[in-house]
TrEMBL record:
Pfam families: NAD_synthase. Gene3D superfamilies: HUPs (3.40.50.620). ATP binds at G36, L37, S38, G39, G40, I41, D42, S43, K210, S232. InterPro entries: NAD/GMP_synthase, NAD_synthase, NH(3)-dep_NAD(+)_synth, Rossmann-like_a/b/a_fold. This is NH(3)-dependent NAD(+) synthetase. SUPFAM superfamilies: Adenine nucleotide alpha hydrolases-like. It catalyses: deamido-NAD(+) + NH4(+) + ATP = AMP + diphosphate + NAD(+) + H(+). PANTHER family: GLUTAMINE-DEPENDENT NAD(+) SYNTHETASE, NH 3 /GLUTAMINE-DEPENDENT NAD + SYNTHETASE. The gene is nadE. One of its GO terms (molecular function) is ATP binding.
Length: 301
């Protein structure tokens, strides 16, 4: 199963995505592309792909940090933008989030060392889950009646939605289209924010599983320190992807691939339990509406 997920020809995959980017820019009569560069592996890979498709002066990256952003994130975003010679606009969205009331949902971390903030986030996350359902699964259910999870959804999701607003605000002034940075694993499990980081004009890496994102990043020369750090949405201190999902990406990707290609029976050879398979199935089902346009009633006239 692991072999099935490996990219047969990374160069061909790269060329396919690069041609797709060029086609989208031409199709939408755009002057260039804007995207959010968080310093994480997904947006860094998108940056490297965009640079292969477009001149550096046709690409604008936004780094939109806030109170809870890890200090390392800006450093990594700058490393990528410097390596590719693309403009990086740094915007602090703390004031916007504070004005909305986002930070009133969580105690201020002033003068509290980050390691204690991280411990607080992890403990709170674990307190909201039980043996039957993870906190993330409950969040896909709208909080499942848990007021703390509902507040957490608003707290986390608003950050990405503000970033989407800024991408379109700056992009439309230049007639730049927005490139999304969500991967296939995130899309299929619902590990993204509807009208947040999913808001884009095109999604260059949305058909790559997370493990394939890592592989292609290595192939294209994304800095090693970015590839090797634990993937994180960087929305709350200490909250990493695999902790939130309560499963390593390697397992998630194998399950998703097996479900997509009717190879579920082969998962037994990968030491994957039926409970884990059902968990991913549930995430996929609960998040299905997030991958669709809003429903509407059909009018017969």
């Amino acid at each position: 199963m692991r072999d099935c997920l490996r990219l047969k020809d990374p160069e061909e995959v790269t060329n396919t995505i690069v041609k797709f980017i060029m086609k989208q820019v031409e199709k939408l009569n755009a002057n260039g592309v804007i995207f959010g560069l968080s310093g994480g592996i997904d947006s860094s890979l998108v940056a490297f792909l965009l640079r292969r498709a477009l001149p550096n002066d046709k690409i604008l990256a936004l780094f939109m940090g806030e109170r809870d952003t890890h200090p390392q994130s800006l450093k990594h975003a700058r490393i990528v933008s410097d390596a590719l010679h693309i403009e990086l606009k740094e915007i602090n969205i703390t004031g916007i989030l504070k004005a909305i009331g986002v930070y009133s949902l969580e105690p201020p971390p002033l003068f509290i060392p980050r390691k204690f903030q991280e411990r607080y986030t992890i403990n709170k996350y674990l307190q909201n889950q039980d043996e039957k359902e993870t906190t993330f699964l409950k969040s896909l259910k709208g909080g499942a009646g848990n007021i703390e999870i509902m507040k957490g959804n608003a707290y986390l999701h608003t950050k990405h939605r503000i970033r989407a607003v800024l991408l379109y605000f700056y992009g439309e002034q230049m007639n730049y289209i927005v490139a999304g940075c969500c991967n296939k694993t995130e899309k299929l499990t619902g590990y993204f924010v509807k009208y947040g980081d999913s808001a884009s004009d095109f999604d260059p890496i949305a058909d790559l599983y997370k493990t394939q994102v890592r592989e292609l990043s290595e192939f294209l020369g994304v800095p090693k320190e970015i590839i090797e750090k634990p993937p994180s949405p960087d929305l709350a201190p200490g909250l990493t992807d695999e902790f939130a999902l309560q499963m390593p990406y390697e397992k998630i990707d194998m399950i998703l691939y097996a479900l997509e290609h009717n190879l579920e029976s082969e998962l037994k050879n990968e030491n994957i339990t039926e409970k884990e398979i059902e968990y991913i199935k549930t995430l996929r089902e609960l998040s299905s509406h997030m991958r669709e346009l809003p429903p509407y009633p059909k009018i017969e006239n």
